[in-house]
Amino acid sequence: MSRSCLAALMAVLISAAMVHIDADAPSKTARVNGTIRGRVELRQTPADNAPRVSVADLGMGNTHEPPDRRSVVYLDPAPRAAFERADETRPRLDQRDETFVPHVLPIVVGTTVDFPNNDHTYHNVFSLSKTKSFDLGRYAAGRSKAVRFDRPGIVRVFCDIHSHMSAFILVFAHRYFSLSDRDGLYRLENVPPGTYTVVAWNESAPLESRRVVVPDAGGEVEVNFALGRR
Known about the structure:
Helices cover 10% and strands 43% of the residues.
């Protein structure tokens, strides 16, 4: 074989080897999960409805604080294979000062929620919601009962003794949800690249949604909401 042919053959082999190495090397355009963040503004928070007078309230005056109406922001639908098992730690929906704390509790399907009575009186926690119907009966201060939530949906919780008490449990089949803070700020982290519908829920306003694209390079995408009357 001539030297020129041998040189050409060597060049081809080296080029093929380099292509193989590049194919095995990490891609420079690897997809990176991102974050969706923003703020939910309530244009108008409706005044609380006047609670019905109950026997437990007679002579006590209006001592009940208005509920802390936070918003929940979530993806609908969520990325594929997003379903995760519930945490081993059990969240609490406390009964304190004749108020459910927190007023809004988002959880994952399969989660068991504790309902401790840390108040000065009896309570009777119940729900007639289709997602989960239950009645824990009356129990005294210092006691606690629990409920497991096995279906996604919204559960409205009440106390049979104190008509002004109510709370919301939002049950999701995935973890792509966020409860806003007191300033309305939220964060949805570790979201795979793609196009999604982001939904904002608040008990005092209709649902609102936005389309958002999380780029392959990841990073943070800002999505804000203004719920309620204009």
